[in-house]
Amino acid sequence: MKSRRYKIILAYDGTAYSGYQYQENAIAVQQKLEEVLEYLEGAKVRVYGSSRTDAGVHAKGFCAHFDLTKPIPAKNLVKAMNSRLPADIRVMKAFNVKSDFDARLSAHGKEYRYFVYQGEIMPPHLAPYWTFQHRPLDLEAMRRGAAYFVGRHDFVSFAANPNRELETTVRNIFSFEVKRSGPKYVFIVRGDGFLYKQVRSMVGFLLTIGKGSEKPEAVKELLEAATPRTARVETAPGKGLFLWKVFYNDNFKKVK
Question: Is 250 among the residues known to form the active site?
Answer without folding.
Answer: no
